[in-house]
Design a protein that fits this description.
Transthyretin/HIU_hydrolase; 1 helix; six-stranded mixed sheet; mainly beta; 112 residues; 5-hydroxyisourate hydrolase; 10 strands; four-stranded antiparallel sheet
C-alpha cells in the first residue's frame, strides 16, 4: 500500500498537447454525482493540483476542468468549453486523474 501522507486523495495533471506544456490556471471543480461541490481549485504552473477532502466519499464523483478558459487565454479556438471526467471511488487509495488536452480532443485515464 502506498503512503499518502501529505498528499490529497485526488490529484490531477493537465497537459496541453498542442504546445507540449503544462496547462496552468485551469479551474477545477470536484462534485458528487448529485452535484454537491466537494472542492474547487486550479492547476499550478506545472499543470498540477490536489483537491478534495482528506477522505473521498465512496461512489461516483465528477471532476470538471474548465478548459475553454485555458484555450481562450492562449488565443486558440476550441470545441470543448469544459471537460467532465466521471469516476467511481471504491476504497481509500490515492486517485490521480490526468487530462491530456488539445483544442478539439482530450483523453484521460486513471493514473498513479
Amino acid at each position: 500500500m502506498r503512503a499518502t501522507f501529505g498528499v490529497p486523495h485526488l490529484t490531477t495533471h493537465v497537459l496541453d498537447a498542442r504546445t507540449g506544456t503544462p496547462a496552468a490556471g485551469v479551474a477545477l471543480t470536484l462534485r458528487t454525482a448529485e452535484g454537491e461541490v466537494l472542492a474547487t481549485g486550479e492547476t499550478d504552473a506545472d499543470g498540477r493540483a490536489g483537491l478534495g477532502p482528506d477522505v473521498l466519499p465512496q461512489g461516483e464523483l465528477e471532476l470538471r476542468f474548465d478548459t475553454g478558459a485555458h484555450h481562450r487565454a492562449t488565443g486558440v479556438p476550441s470545441f470543448h468549453p469544459y471537460v467532465v471526467v466521471a469516476f467511481t471511488v471504491s476504497g481509500t487509495d490515492h486517485l490521480h486523474v490526468p487530462l491530456l488536452l488539445s483544442p478539439f480532443a482530450y483523453s484521460t485515464y486513471r493514473g498513479s
